[in-house]
């Protein structure tokens, strides 16, 4: 077997001889992306004898996968494939060809796109049940559905599906692979994209590879990180943080035979060893299998953890990025319509490092999420405003996924230095937020539960549904307004807004997990309730909490879908000179002007939406002077009211306004 050659063209020739295909599309993409993949492999595995073999096999798998890709998915690829750019430091810029044709706007930059996320079992029993709900989802206005992990997992606890025993078998309680394909097809027909997790940092401890690795079967010994004694684990743990200390201390667990294996999360989730190129090849195969089921977006679970190195935190290392880029190149070759969503719940400087056309085009926005809650607790939107000012802009061709809460906990991931600039002590503030959202702080409206409280470090995160955290559970009449306000931020800052399904009817915490021995120690289950049938039953009755919320959430969706200014990521902060008011401007740029137009018949291109949100408990006044840069007449889009800005405006507590404004006529010198 040849070693990886420094010369990509020569290696490609060798590999091409082994390819059966001859498909022109595939060859074009192979020519385009191979140099990038090759350079990445060379950097990751250049000194390993099996590097070339893994690269060759990856390409062969990509070829087979493309051959097997169903025509409707290929059609989707053709609609969605985006030009990629060379990665500045991959060293391949001289060999990269650039896709020709006019620049294309990504499909996910459409203001009409609104997402939802749900567990199949909890929301609809099984995949057939989920399909039966498609008309409801469509009716709500969704164009994106993230189904939580649904593959086969171990008996008993499985981290809500994040311990995958086989990437090629659906959990039998939910259906079959054929069911999943059918679900993808029906979603596509209804105009929804399918999002599934690619849980690629680890497998379940009963995955076939894991069993073989532990048994020392040749070819598999090196799939995981197994150590004969504590020597290396102890050294690693000096610099690696604990993720689930409630499950086990540190990052390793002991095997029955006394050896130690790396498991960042639960004891039954074993980290894959990506320093072994065969693991990359194997996981690339699983990834393409998922892609061929009809998945449109792969949520790259726990991406920060995929590369380990002694003496480092083993989070967000440079190699983690190279790996993600390599997976991206494989996808670009064999499933070019599919994009990655990065799940990096880390320091904001690190979150953005995963976002590029070569890496993940989409990323959760954990900072905006956490700071929305921060502003609701403090009534002070300064940190959120600061984040929007300096941490919001993304490269062209990429976007945020903005959420109010997910299936996980809320961690206060803002940067200490950002807080310090505003005179806020980050440590003390995080402690306050944990107290506040666990309801311990006097006067708190929130009913949350702490997650992974670590007495050693004082660290903790918060779990709870949107409604429970916002005050609905505590019967604070303002709770429902906070639910709407929080969603209005996710809906107006750009990118893909995401609803945790059930939150639109105000589902509350589910405390039953505490009685389930398998779940009692994982308080995130409090925010994963079953389909709230009662709330949905009263969603059309506006006298109920569910009905009131549902009406407002639908309105937010409708208006967002009629407002091209709200897509894209370009955002201009605006100083409303009112301490509790968050204000910013959104302008329709070419990236976002994809919608049907403004809905009210006006042409949105070049116009601006001024977003105002009052986080305070009192009326907030925005003076005429502050608004004098705009023409005196504006339209408030949510209420469809024409408003006059000439006398200033008053925002009631927790109210918001999306004002379509025009610049004031230029006050230049009069000419005679
Ligand atoms: C991600 C998931 C989380 C899971 C972890 C391990 O962070 O969102 O639910 O526990 O990865 O897979
Ligand atoms: C899971 C955990 C979260 C952790 C993250 C890392 O989401 O719940 O607390 O920070 O994994 O990806």
From TrEMBL:
<feature type="region of interest" description="Disordered">
    <location>
        <begin position="72"/>
        <end position="101"/>
    </location>
</feature>
<feature type="compositionally biased region" description="Basic and acidic residues">
    <location>
        <begin position="72"/>
        <end position="88"/>
    </location>
</feature>
<dbReference type="InterPro" id="IPR045857">
    <property type="entry name" value="O16G_dom_2"/>
</dbReference>
<feature type="domain" description="Glycosyl hydrolase family 13 catalytic">
    <location>
        <begin position="117"/>
        <end position="543"/>
    </location>
</feature>
<feature type="compositionally biased region" description="Polar residues">
    <location>
        <begin position="89"/>
        <end position="101"/>
    </location>
</feature>
<protein>
    <submittedName>
        <fullName>Amylosucrase</fullName>
        <ecNumber>2.4.1.4</ecNumber>
    </submittedName>
</protein>
<keyword id="KW-0808">Transferase</keyword>
<dbReference type="GO" id="GO:0005975">
    <property type="term" value="P:carbohydrate metabolic process"/>
</dbReference>
<keyword id="KW-0328">Glycosyltransferase</keyword>
<dbReference type="InterPro" id="IPR006047">
    <property type="entry name" value="GH13_cat_dom"/>
</dbReference>
<dbReference type="InterPro" id="IPR013780">
    <property type="entry name" value="Glyco_hydro_b"/>
</dbReference>
<dbReference type="GO" id="GO:0047669">
    <property type="term" value="F:amylosucrase activity"/>
</dbReference>
<dbReference type="InterPro" id="IPR017853">
    <property type="entry name" value="GH"/>
</dbReference>
<dbReference type="Pfam" id="PF00128">
    <property type="entry name" value="Alpha-amylase"/>
</dbReference>
<dbReference type="InterPro" id="IPR044077">
    <property type="entry name" value="Amylosucrase"/>
</dbReference>
């Amino acid at each position: 077997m040849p070693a990886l050659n420094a010369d990509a063209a020569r290696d490609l020739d060798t590999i091409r001889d082994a390819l059966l295909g001859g498909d022109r599309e595939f060859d074009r993409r192979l020519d385009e992306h191979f140099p990038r993949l090759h350079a990445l492999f060379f950097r990751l595995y250049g000194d390993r004898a099996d590097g070339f073999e893994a690269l060759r096999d990856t390409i062969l798998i990509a070829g087979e996968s493309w051959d097997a890709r169903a025509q409707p998915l290929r059609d989707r690829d053709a609609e969605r494939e985006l030009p990629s750019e060379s990665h500045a430091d991959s060293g391949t810029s001289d060999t990269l060809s650039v896709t020709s044709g006019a620049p294309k706007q990504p499909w996910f930059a459409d203001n009409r796109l609104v997402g939802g996320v749900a567990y199949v079992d909890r929301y609809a029993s099984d995949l057939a049940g989920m399909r039966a709900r498609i008309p409801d989802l469509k009716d709500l206005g969704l164009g994106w559905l993230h189904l939580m992990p649904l593959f086969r997992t171990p008996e008993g606890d499985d981290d809500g599906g994040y311990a995958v025993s086989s990437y090629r078998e659906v959990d039998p309680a939910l259906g079959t692979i054929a069911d999943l394909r059918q679900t993808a097809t029906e979603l596509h027909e209804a105009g929804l994209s399918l999002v599934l997790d690619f849980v690629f940092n680890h497998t379940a401890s009963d995955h076939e590879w894991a069993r073989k690795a532990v048994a020392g079967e040749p070819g598999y010994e090196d799939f995981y990180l197994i150590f004969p004694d504590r020597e290396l684990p102890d050294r690693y743990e000096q610099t690696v943080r604990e993720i689930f200390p409630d499950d086990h201390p540190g990052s390793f667990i002991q095997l029955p035979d006394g050896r130690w294996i790396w498991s960042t999360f639960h004891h039954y989730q074993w980290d894959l060893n990506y320093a072994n190129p065969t693991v990359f090849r194997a996981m690339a195969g699983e990834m393409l299998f998922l892609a061929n089921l009809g998945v449109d977006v792969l949520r790259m679970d726990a991406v920060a953890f995929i590369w380990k190195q002694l003496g480092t935190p083993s989070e967000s290392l440079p190699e983690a990025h190279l790996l993600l880029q390599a997976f991206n190149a494989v996808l670009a070759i064999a499933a070019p319509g599919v994009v990655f969503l990065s799940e990096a719940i880390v320091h904001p400087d690190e979150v953005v490092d995963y976002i590029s056309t070569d890496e993940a085009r989409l990323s959760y926005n954990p900072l905006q999420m956490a700071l929305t809650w921060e502003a609701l607790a403090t009534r002070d939107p300064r940190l959120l405003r600061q984040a929007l000012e300096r941490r919001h802009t993304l490269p062209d061709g990429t976007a945020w996924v903005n959420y109010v809460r997910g299936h996980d906990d809320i961690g206060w991931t803002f940067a200490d230095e950002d807080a310090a600039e505003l005179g806020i002590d980050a440590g003390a503030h995080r402690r306050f937020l944990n107290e506040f959202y666990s309801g311990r702080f006097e006067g708190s409206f929130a009913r949350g539960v702490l997650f992974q409280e670590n007495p050693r470090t004082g660290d903790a995160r918060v779990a709870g549904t949107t409604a429970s955290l916002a005050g609905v559970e505590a019967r604070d009449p303002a709770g429902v307004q906070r639910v709407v306000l929080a969603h209005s931020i996710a809906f107006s800052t750009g990118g893909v807004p995401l609803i945790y399904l059930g939150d639109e009817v105000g589902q509350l915490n589910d405390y039953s997990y505490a009685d389930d021995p398998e779940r009692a120690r994982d308080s995130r289950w409090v925010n994963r309730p079953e389909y709230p049938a009662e709330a949905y039953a009263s969603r059309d009755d506006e006298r109920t909490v569910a009905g009131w919320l549902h009406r407002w959430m639908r309105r937010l969706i409708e208006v967002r879908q009629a407002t091209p200014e709200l897509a894209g990521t370009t955002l201009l902060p605006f100083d409303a000179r009112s301490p509790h008011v968050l204000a910013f401007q959104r302008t329709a740029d070419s990236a976002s002007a994809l919608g049907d137009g403004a809905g009210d018949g006006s042409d949105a291109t070049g116009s601006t939406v001024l977003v105002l949100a009052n986080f305070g408990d009192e009326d907030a006044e925005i003076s005429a002077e502050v608004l004098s840069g705009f023409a005196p007449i504006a339209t408030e889009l949510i209420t469809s009211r024409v408003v006059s800005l000439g006398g200033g405006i008053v925002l009631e507590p927790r109210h918001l306004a999306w004002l379509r404004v025009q610049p004031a006529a230029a006050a230049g010198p009069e000419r005679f």
